[in-house]
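Co-fold these.
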Amino acid sequence: MTIKNKIQARREMYQRAVLESFIKLNPRWMVRNPVMFVVEVGSVLTTLLWIQSLIGKGEAPAGFIGAITLWLWFTVLFANFSEAVAEGRGKAQAESLRKARQDTPAKKVSSNVKTFERENFETEIVSSTSLRKDDLYLVEAGDILPADGEIVVGIASVDESAVTGESAPVVREAGGDRSAVTGGTRLLSDWLIIRVSADPGQGFLDRMISMVEGAKRQKTPNEIALNILLAGFTIIFLVVCATLLPYSIYSVDASGQGTPITLTVLIALLVCLIPTTIGGLLSAIGIAGMDRMIQRNVIAMSGRAVEAAGDVDVLLLDKTGTITLGNRQAVEFIPINGVAAQELAEAAQLASLADETPEGRSIVVLAKEKFGLRGHTVDGMHFIPFTAQTRMSGVNFNGTQIRKGAPDTMIGLIQSNGNGVASNLKPTVDSIARAGGTPLVVTRDNKALGVIHLKDIVKGGMKERFAQLRKMGIKTVMITGDNPLTAAAIAAEAGVDDFLAQATPEAKLKLIREYQTGGRLVAMTGDGTNDAPALAQADVAVAMNTGTQPAREAANMVDLDSNPTKLIEIVEIGKQLLMTRGALTTFSLANDVSKYFAIIPAAFASTYPQLNALNIMHLATPESAIMSAVIFNALIIIVLIPLALRGVPYRAVGAAQLLRDNLLIYGLGGLLVPFIGIKVIDMLLVALNLV
Amino acid sequence: MNTWIQMIFYFGTLLILTRPLGTYMAKVYQGERLILDLVLGPVERFLYRLSGIDPRSEMTWKTYAVAMLLFNIIGLIAVYLLQRLQGFLPLNPQGLGAVSPDSAWNTAVSFATNTNWQGYGGEMTMSYLTQMLGMTVQNFVSAATGMAVMLALIRGITRHTTKKIGNFWVDMTRSVLYILLPLSLVLAMALVSQGVVQTFSEYQTATSLQSGETQLIAVGPAASQVAIKQLGTNGGGFFNVNSSHPLENPTPFSNFFQMLSILLIPAALCYTYGKMVGDTRQGWALLAVMTIVLVALLGVAIWSEQNGNPMFNEMGIDQVQSATNPGGNMEGKEVRFGIVNSSLWATVTTAASNGSVNSMHDSFMPLGGLVPMWMIQLGEIIYGGVGSGLYGMLAFVIIAVFVSGLMVGRTPEYLGKKIEAYEMKMASIIILIPVMVVLIGTAVALMSEAGRTTIFNPSAHGFSEVLYAFSSAGNNNGSAFAGLGANTPFYNIALGIAMLIARYWLAIPVLAIAGSLANKKKIPASAGTLPTHTPLFIVWVIGVIIIVGALSFLPALALGPIVEHLMIFG
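Predicted complex below.
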């Protein structure tokens, strides 16, 4: 997309948002938001009062009532606009997703097929909308997948860019953890038979579209609680303003001068007092929170999940891939019994030449780095591959047998050949294991030469990340299949708070339940089918997009980038969402103080001119004072839209410091800013001769 | 200088007593062994046996609320009947007749709700029996009701995953037996030592020094009632002019004892609260919030009264402070108490929902009068009524925690309990109801002929008087600005309704919160949890209270005391 196109798209989005803000004036829509609904009712009332004043029997000059009315309507429209802009960003995304979901022909496989040999079954072409759960269909290279499903037969590369935005193809195959496919993606090679996993309209893409569009957006628990508080304040201010009329009438009576407060001023006061800033932006904040997830390629299945992310106290992180690089690497050769280090390195290298595992390759590389040994094959070499039975690998040449393998296997080998085990082998092996490494014993002709130290490499920057999380009050738990000794060492190196060693799916589930019974909220990532129960149990569960269908079903978020580290960002987005709400609520309420100082002296100027002592801003006239307060109240919504969409920045500092900073900015700021703003608007109004 | 010494002496004594009394009350409520068990244990067990109560069976919040309401209604009816039938009952040496139905209703409600608004004059209206069996008994049980509700809320916070929040009858009984009775006994003795009357004999006739005329001096069993009226933050005087009466509050010492006992239990309950939730810092934080607001407003009151009235200067009245002249605005104040102790009393009695007076608030300077009025309007949470003050304060804390919790990026939680929609709904009701009762009540009075006719000073001051009356009833304080003829059917009925709503529509939501919190899981604290005992949090809670109080009442106050002040001082 060129820059010009982007600007064009942006302009269109804003144009649509402006239109939307008028459409949203529909009272049936407005009533969902009690604060803004009150403003709308107020606007209708002042409109009627304005019409009355035009006829000539108004309670105040038509120009004044008209101007107030106009700005009250602006207040409502600005609030609607903020929501429309927030929604607009998602809509563009939904549009491109919808293109991928177009009705595509599907090659349905009759369900009574017995074997899946390519030649052996018939297909019929049907519309993708007629596919039902558990139907089977065939896709071949170049086809667009008509529906979500689980691969039954085949292996193929798939272009998932329509969903993930990532153009590199991914491999999908039957069985294992990479068997789920998404409708709307394109098959690049080979063929697959797929079992449909969702009825039309309920697929992954459909859910994504509805989430992105916010069409099915329901208020989240915390949003509901905040709405109740805002409604409470609205009722208080309704009562305050409504009772002001009899008070004013009595005061006029008692003091024998002036006229009672007008309805227009009462409504203006009401609108200024009720928390319109937060009330108007509340829904935009929620939508923008979801949107920020989407921008980081995370699809949350509900707003509730985004909110819960902010509350997470415990993060369960898989060791491999999240905390450490995917594989172990050789870092040291430790010879025993006077064997030269180089001799051990050479033997280890020879034994690993045919070993294509990352660990094997790292041994070859280390030997080359440390001793300049070039891996070379010798004629007559016979490589022994690793098998589950022998549990060792190696090479035979010129009558020499070199083997490498896990210590217990190798000791067994040495002893069964009648050789003694060197006294310092065991301590060496143990010290590596204690340090979190994996020892591999190398033998030549059934005698130990030494040990290779394989080590998990902790990703860079993780320790700092975990320290940050600790400051945020989040506990990190490493999940690993390693034995407790190894796990403890890696946990210490990575700086996590705790670990679960020799983790099984059951152990994981149990751990989550334990934390939850203790009142904590648990987040985890997972991709395999065996993760599904734990994912379903966790409060925030992020499935990798490369994961299996059951895992994606069980989770409440899907990470399209399949990056387990992203959990940390997800937590931050959740916190930002709540912080933005809190900050704007504080700001909104703190604003009210200045509005009293503007409106009260103005409202009772005719009855009690002495009250002008409260006009500390020295606003020009009662009319300009009231106008300025109303205009400020409307404009502040527009000014704060970017903050609502972007969110209050989150920093990983303790709760107390966060509160202090935010109170200073939004509390104290909210108290002072309107004094300045109202004064400036008043000066402008006077300068422009508008009052 | 004298002012400072008196302040330090008062608050010093109060804070010194907070901890021991708070600890003692925590022991009482947690059922620990006490020395008083020897005497009171059998009495307590006998009472349970007599009324068929199993002290170990606990209640859900709804059962608790029903028990509380039932008990209060019975008390209300009893006081009503006592007043209506006192002419036929003993201990009525003056032969006082039946109280009018509307006044009797008002008084019955007033004493059941711990308000002690008095539309009547005690010595002209109530027989000794009514005073003792009606007023004094209600003084005990209405105070204990507040303490019981508070206790249920504490249990809601400390317990987890249970529906039970205690047994109302037990909480009630233990509050009266172990706390209110012993303290009252001590205080009544101290008061008698200062000359507060305690007798069943009839009113005394004396010859006046001034003109040789005879004068009828009212007496009665006052000391016993005055003790609990202060300790239970009731405030209903034995005599019409309450604690400015020489036989109800004769000396500076009796004055000090009474002022001290007004705040004693509310202050100590903060410590009890901290003790029971397992973190005394929480209790001290709440006490700090209360004390800071109290001292700040007290300063305004003393300054305003000591500053005097410019109109007095025109009349040639000496308002300069000297060794023999307290100076300042002494209108409506007793010479034996002076400016400081009158202002202190006025602030303290309205901070707590006590409402007894030792000077006439109506005669305070506009800002001096604004202080007690606004104190009441803040919701009777600055110390507040026994029990009720603390639970009202906790509603504000819940609101403060909610907003500040959001600001640190977590679903808000207080002491390990998540604050969610249900708690917000109930906390909003608790804050909303008194504001509505006060503002709407005042509006109704000003709009109706019946309400306007008995405003004796139709002006900004007259407006203040009506506003004060409804503030007092709508927050269960009970003090009056006077200057308003309130013993009329209109005010008796309207204020009675206000008192009922304000008391029970706060207590019920509080119990609902208790029930809901008790049912929740307890979340362990972490670095991401907002600490609720820090100076920052204290400042924040004060901010919320002041902002809510100011936003709700500033327009009304502007038309009353504020404009009155501006009229005098320009």
